[in-house]
Amino acid sequence: MSSPTIRLPRAEDGGTRLTPLLRLLILTQLAFNLGFFAVLPFLAEHLGRAVGMAGWLIGFVLGLRTFSQQGLFVVGGALADRYGIRPVVLAGCALRIAGFGWLGFARQTWAVIGAVLLIGFAAALFSPAVESEVARQAVALETAGQGSRTRVLALFTVAGQAGAFVGPLLGALLLAVDFRAVCLTGAGIFFLVLAGHARLLPQHIPGRERTRIKGGMRALLHNRPFLGLCCAYGAYLLAYNQLYLALPAEVERAAGSQAPLAWLFALSSLLVVTAQLPVTRWATARLTPRSAMLAGLLLIAAGFLTVAAARPAGRTGATGLLPAAGFVVLLTLGQMLVAPVARAWVPDLAEEGRLGLYTGALSSASGLIVLLGSAATGTLLDAGLPPATPWLALAAVPLAAIALLPRR
């Protein structure tokens, strides 16, 4: 299978004229996800087979990784506001190198937990720093009349999805050697990112002023439009998380195994890589940010309703998998509308000088919603309810989120 190609748009073909810094940050997102997803899909099996962990302990370790990453995004964002993105990104890359290297040699539970915490906290440093600077640069381009900020954020999303698509393929090839080779390759990718940023990332980026950390959270917690956006984005992420929770259960029921799941994941990734920019271009020309997010949430709800409508029939085999495929397509189309717009909306709602804090808070708040919502979803799926009921309840989540969208 050939790797998806990312073509950075040029001004002469109607695209956005990207600055060298934006090009660096967008390619950084591709490299981040390439290195990360070369390792992550194979971690659970390694912990069970090679390390000998029980199932509950594997789940606990994976949960720790999510918490140390998503839950601490707000910390990384605040540090980027205070010290600038260069030291935060470089520190995050160094921690990720150490974490992957440690994980490759870890054979005891305490060592695995330490490595996983390092890997998660590394992303909590560099991801909000990079995302907030991409958003800030995108707003500057839009203000100068050189293109849409949403298009820049969409390209950032495509780069990340391309890395997430190619990473597991690279990891699968390296797994023929052993898991240590996978981890050391991931560490090597982040070493290249560290070296590249040490050379190319400016010491000081024009227009970015350092801001004191103190007092930022108080204003954020009183920012009702931003909190509404966090809740709506969290509802989208909770729905998207069903690719890993509700969808596998439905595929198992329809096919008798989870073998078709990999093809459905590949379908989602390829849709984003090939269609994200055309969808964003269409939406930017015709929809306001609120309307784009509303349309995306409606598409996501329609995906859940597609499965809910088909579940009472209980079909299996290829025909039984069609509703699941429809769910993946509609969910991915909704994602293409919601994700770039939500990121592009944050600068308009953030306090001056605190874009990193607000970018990190968007991820941390939505991650908390996913954590709590996933526990409720798991209970719902195991409750022995009529087959359509869990999917109808899940469809209500994005529909309810529409009421929380900011009015401006």
TrEMBL record:
Q: Which Gene3D superfamilies match?
A: MFS general substrate transporter like domains
- Subcellular location as annotated: Cell membrane
**Top-level taxon of the source organism:** Bacteria
Membrane topology is: Multi-pass membrane protein
Q: Where is the Major facilitator superfamily (MFS) profile domain?
A: 21-408
Q: Where are the transmembrane segments?
A: 21-44, 50-67, 88-105, 111-131, 152-173, 179-200, 221-240, 260-279, 291-310, 322-343, 355-376, 388-405
Alphabetized UniProt keyword annotations: Cell membrane, Membrane, Transmembrane, Transmembrane helix, Transport
According to UniProt, the name of this protein is MFS transporter
Biological source species: Streptomyces gilvifuscus
